[in-house]
Amino acid sequence: MSFFINFTPDLVVESPGRINLIGEHTDYNLGFVLPTAIDKKITLKLRKNNSSNCNVYSLDNEKSVTFSLDKIEPSKQSWENYILGVLHEIQLLTDKLSGFDCVLNSSLPIGSGLSSSAALECGLAFGLNELFNLGLSKTQIVNLSRAAEHNYVGTKCGIMDQYASVMSKSGYVIKLDCRSLASEYIPLNLGDYKLLLLNTNISHSLADSEYNTRLQECLTGVEAMKTLYPYMASLRDADQEMLTAVKDTISTTVFNRCNYIIEENDRVLKASEALTQGDLTSFGVLMYGSHDGLQHKYEVSCPELDFMVEYSRTKEFILGSRMMGGGFGGCTINLIHKDAIEKYITEVASAYKTKFNIELDAYIAMPDHGTMLKTL
Ligand code: GAF
Which of 13, 137, 209, 222 has the lowest tally of Cβ within 10 angstroms? Predict the structure, then answer.
């Protein structure tokens, strides 16, 4: 397949990864999150090819694949399912899709907790919507991309990643209510501080990880509480008193998972308030609280992430640090004074290398706009 040589696209889409300042694993419990898109993106070049075939070439891993639109079904190759899933979900909504060629490349590190998967799903859905005039709204693009992840990739994820990838505005974080999808755009004014991402280079795989188990554990907690509080629909409706009332009927593990979610929702609300007030010190304390809960109660961290967060704790120029995303690898997010960044990266990278014999990568996260067409 050589269609990608001298490729002239009909349109180009840039689809960003995301960071999440606080509110981890709260989205599928219909709680609150505080994400934004960043300036690391997947670029998709697309053109119609007047056939019923879809040819996709990834410049990064030099893999190409062809699908017939007449036979879209899950593949054994996991990366193909992000594409196939989107095609399948679009076909459920409209019959206007036809053959296309697509060339992909990315500045987003894969498996680093920056949600390259949502960037790919949303970018493809957004691009095909434009290319074939499908008439889908942004909300439909978010929802169908999430459905692709559920039905083809197998991760029963929440709405956060797809929402942030599509709906973000440059310079703002989104305080998103994952139940109503009401969003408040809060200006990200960090003064002399920056958001530093430290990538453990431990690659996570949500489908293989315990992500879906966590969802089940939360649902078990909800079922137990429903016996006393029948109106409850999700952990979003729970408080510590309600959880304590069913403590004897659930396992310690389920108790800890629910306890973390209730606390984390509360932290997101406090953190949003702190950010609005410009109180970065309180914001940082809440970030550390989030990490502690993810490490000890939700148990989705790993030694490399814990090391990175521990290392930051004694540094007065770092206000807060936590693991970010699904967990089991990927990045920490650090609220750090701008003047200390360079020296700190060198120091922590050396300590990390000594401890784990792994190189770390560091990026400054710049909040950016959501998925967009690029002018040709
Ligand atoms: C992954 C999921 F895709 C999100 O929906 C979210 O649950 C996150 O993990 C944890 O907060 O990125």
Answer: 137
Residues 245 and 353 in one domain: yes
Ligand 1, pocket-test mutation among 160, 179, 212, most atoms within 8 A of CB: 160
Over pLDDT 90: what percentage of the chain? 91
Is 22 close to ligand 1, i.e. is its CB under 6 Å away?
no
Q: How far is Cα 301 from Cα 229, in angstroms, rounded to an integer?
A: 31
> Which residues of the chain carry a pLDDT beneath 50?
207
pLDDT per residue as tens digits for the range 127-139: 999 999 999 999 9
Pair 218, 79 in one domain: no
Pocket test for ligand 1, best of 21, 146, 157 (most atoms within 8 A of CB): 157
Shared domain for 124 and 199, answered yes or no, is no
Domain residue limits at 215: 193-364
Please state the domain count of the chain. 2
28 touches ligand 1 (CB under 6 Å): yes
Q: Whose CA is nearest to atom 2 of ligand 1?
A: 157
The verdict on the CB of residue 25 being under 6 Å from ligand 1 is yes
Ligand 1, atom 3, residue with closest C-alpha? 157
**Has 161 been annotated as catalytic?**
yes
Q: pLDDT tens for residues 268-296?
A: 999 999 999 999 999 999 999 999 999 99
* pLDDT in the model for residue 165: 98
